[in-house]
Amino acid sequence: MFAQFFGSYLLNHNAVSPNELTAAIAMLADTHIKLGTLAMHMGYMTAAEVDEVCFLQTREDKRFGEIALERNYLFDEQLDELLKTQIPDYLLLGQTLVDMGCLTNGDLEELMVGYQDESQLNEEAAANETTETTTKLLTNFFREAGKEISEYALMYMNLIFNNLIRFIGEDFTPLAPVPCTEYEINCCVTQHITGPLNCTSSIDMTQDVAVAFASRYAKMDFTEFDEYVEASLEDFLNLHNGLFSVNMSNTYAEELTLDPPVQETEKVLRLTDESFVIPVIYPFGTVYLLLTV
User: Fold this and answer.
1) Which of 149, 184, 261, 271 has the fewest CB within 10 Å, making it most exposed?
2) Confidence of residue 211 (pLDDT cuts 50, 70, 90)
3) Do residues 109 and 164 both lie within one domain?
4) Predicted pLDDT of residue 137
């Protein structure tokens, strides 16, 4: 999940444009981490040293590691460690943006340090996502937007981002949560949850985005907005909330009741003061997550 929130960090700091970020995310499936990016992340090499070795590779038929060893930028044991290490997924996103010319290695070095500091991440935490580390990441995500949310709501949001990765795809970036008391809808599905966490959750998107979203979720090639697309959106929200209900029961021994998901027919949703919306950018368009607690 760190790659998705690194994208949000880049947008918040005006390091890249939404179009550049979306294009980079779409390329991630075919991207492999480079040794120089990893060495910079581990603090073994500076951006200037990485740039120098990359330049020398255009003049010599040698691998990056060979040149770095010759220049004493890396030691043998460091190179061995880099070749074996687990890779934090957000490094691939940063490297792709460098390859696209949107960032320099120097920019990426500075941004990685800032992101790790702001998210309170170390290399081990970034390479091994746990519920604890992603909860910390989400807490920071909301805090940076000036919003504190409950433990239950954090658990809910942690799960929905994981379910987006699992069922729709990991090629997205969430934007900062925006408080709202009314929301003009496009194609919106809503489900009410009652119990220790009384809330209303909704997903909203335009019809063309809904077709792409449903195609990914159902693993079918939908070509137009119809009742099957609507049913897929309802099923995704109901599946997510059902899993959340199970987690609440297993973790807190708290039971929730779910109403059936419904398609909203009103043009504007009237929400409480505690409501917020999170735009989630995919290459195929933007999905809006709404939660009223």
Assistant:
1) 184
2) very high
3) no
4) 85
Tell me the whole-structure pTM to 2 decimals.
Answer: 0.78
pLDDT at 258 over 80: yes
Residue 44 lies in a domain: yes
Q: Are residues 34 and 159 in the same domain?
A: no
Based on C-alpha coordinates, what's the Rg of the chain?
21
| pLDDT for the residue numbered 272 | 82
Domain with 285, as residue range(s), is 145-292
Per the listing, tokens 């998107």 go with 205
Type of residue numbered 106: G
Distances (CA, A) of 274 to 8, 149, 277, 293: 22, 9, 10, 6
Q: Among the three residues 68, 100, 128, which one is the final residue of a domain in this structure?
A: 128
Q: Which two tokens stand for residue 65?
A: 């590691």
Alpha-carbon span 7 to 16, nearest angstrom: 9
> How high does pLDDT run on average in the chain?
88
Contact 265, 202 (CB under 8 A): no
